[in-house]
Description:
It is a single chain. The chain has six helices and seven strands, in the order H-H-H-E-E-E-H-H-E-H-E-E-E. By secondary structure, it is α+β, with helices and mostly antiparallel strands. It has one domain (about 5-189). Strands 1, 2, 3, 4, 5, 6 and 7 form a seven-stranded mixed β-sheet that branches. Helix 1 packs across helix 2. The chain is globular and about 40 Å long. The model has no long low-confidence stretch (mean pLDDT about 95).
Amino acid sequence: MPLPLSEFVSEFADALAAVDATRVSHKQFQPGIGPFGEADAVRTALDRSKKVSPNRYSNAVTKRLPDLLIPHEWAVELKIIRPFGDNGNPAEHWSENILHPYPGNTSSLGDCIKLLESSLLERKAVVIFGYEHTPPVVSLETAVASFELVAHEVLSISLSPRIEQVRFGLVHPVHQQLRVFGYEIQGRK
């Protein structure tokens, strides 16, 4: 049975939360998954998913295009957003990771264009994951809603309805909750 995107998004969120619960540290940062760079977070989550669901993820790989390939299932581009750094200071330009609407750009909007223009046969998806305080000091909602609006109204990209998962109680003092947003890229309008 094909892997529904909703299950992938839920399992990705579970994997990130499970890694966080180990209190692992990335480089010189405080413990928790929040400070991990995008590629390291995706790789770590995939390693966890392979242990928990080997039948589903054993052939999955991280790549340059797409960021995560589940052969014959999904070509997924992932992007991380964090309004605050490990030290609690505001992160400049954090929303650019998803909002630059130009071909060749590494934003989520650029990733949508890249996937649409690719010859990949798998279903195509973009997944945005980010961290907030509990309750949010700066909500990810405005940036994510802007991504949806620009994709639809400016770039004429047809996305599935938003799939969202939230995980609370992360160990990091700044990155206290995880939000994961997933969309199937269905084509151009």
